[in-house]
Write a sequence for this structure.
DNA sequence: CGGGGGATTGACGTAGCTCAACCCGAGTGG
DNA sequence: CCACTCGGGTTGAGCTACGTCAATCCCCCG
């Protein structure tokens, strides 16, 4: 009665068999911001040191505290970067998609991972050792510059997050987070934008520094206002401008 | 009564005349992480494109929103990086010291400054245009690598901050912030560590995402517990371990 | 000595956390 | 194929950390 929530999830069940075939994945990686700017020959040489590996959904890739020995680039799927806190809660720093990298990049010169990386969907990861990566950096200045730009961009986003969490209420943060995700991984669907990844209230809470309950309340609020639609592990945006108004 | 607070501030009145002499400052900059790894000849060449400029205490260096045209390195003094929020409060992202850089580094590829930079003490800044800086990056790979390492380090610190602000109470954040500052700019003094920079409650509040009043209460608490001593615009740490216990 | 900007402290309001009950849709095994 | 279970989601009722507002204090300056 009154509110009808879409109950038949036209879900983003991205369960393609993800062959993780080396050649296929490598071809796609040539496009990654990381390797942009390399000639074909160089690209071939650089990619040669990367080894592919498949992770099933929710599999841990590495834990915080573990020795940081590899640099990884996502060929397919999504990876969640989180910091476990003393009291057992998680602070999600980012959810990365294809072409994005993690591992000993952000932790250059750091011996241990500060963050836990988990396969947020099943995914295929190309990775190499820190040593090999460092050799690439010194040997191919273009890669070093690309890396610099990538890290600088992330730093900017982190600053955004700090501002959000320090100065704005939960409602605002949730709206902003949804918009960010929609820009990154949204596809038009019906009269809205479907965020193409599994996204639970818990995820959203961990990304905004709030609790599941509060996020749930905020989302209900948004739904009643016709801003979003959501279900078990998915979220779609109905009224982008409305959300943007709340996000500021 | 009972509590005696040090009322005679053996202040860090770093009001050396800061001549900002080019040669003197340049000599010191050779040590900056940025230019480490450059040979003498190269260093000379690189430094040549930097122009020095002096800023009095509290002078604005650039405002958020302004076009990002320069990269700056601090020769002497301290610079406060802050984001002004919609509702007029400031979120302080960092306070930088000699040898550290700001400007179009974190904003590589970004046209406008996201942050306001202010002279937190009087200071001397060497700066160059983004164009010249970019030329340096491509021409001297060592600088690009150093920059990468610097930005990666900052990213890590930003992640620390996000964790703090998302998951821990104000008390905890203030303690952690004090420790961070002490490590960076602390000098042993009497039975404690004096933080060598002017540091108001407002600054601390803006760094921790809290209000002046709350920070003041927390600091009073700390003082009563014998952890810190503080006055008008300065702070000293009496019991490092005690603070560390609170910071976790 | 008087003024002013920072700091302190108190009283009060509230956003968001905690605890707890309940619901619902999707697997799963009988 | 149905019943059970179980993991997520929702909702409510308190509680508390922290923000807000306001008064007062205390250096430090002219």
């Amino acid at each position: 009665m009154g509110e009808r929530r879409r109950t038949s999830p036209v879900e983003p069940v991205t369960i393609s068999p993800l062959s993780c075939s080396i050649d296929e994945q490598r071809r796609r990686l040539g496009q990654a911001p990381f390797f942009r700017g390399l000639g074909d020959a160089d690209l071939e040489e650089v990619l040669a040191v990367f080894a592919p590996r498949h992770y099933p959904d929710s599999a841990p890739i590495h834990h915080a505290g573990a020795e940081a020995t590899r640099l990884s680039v996502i060929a397919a799927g999504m990876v969640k970067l989180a910091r476990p806190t003393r009291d057992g809660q998680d602070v999600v720093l980012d959810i990365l998609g294809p072409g994005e990298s993690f591992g000993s990049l952000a932790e250059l010169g750091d011996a241990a991972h500060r963050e836990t990386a988990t396969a947020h969907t099943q995914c295929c990861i190309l990775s190499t050792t820190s040593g090999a990566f460092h050799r690439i950096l010194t040997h191919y200045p273009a890669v070093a510059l690309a890396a610099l730009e990538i890290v600088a961009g992330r730093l900017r986003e982190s600053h955004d997050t700090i501002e959000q969490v320090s100065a704005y209420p939960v409602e605002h943060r949730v709206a902003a987070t949804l918009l960010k995700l929609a820009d990154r991984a949204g596809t038009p669907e019906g009269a809205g934008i479907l965020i193409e990844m599994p996204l639970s209230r818990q995820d959203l809470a961990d990304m905004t520094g709030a609790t599941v309950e509060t996020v749930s309340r905020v989302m209900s609020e948004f739904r009643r206002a016709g801003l979003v639609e959501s279900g078990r592990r998915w979220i779609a945006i109905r009224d982008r401008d409305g959300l943007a108004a709340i996000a500021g």
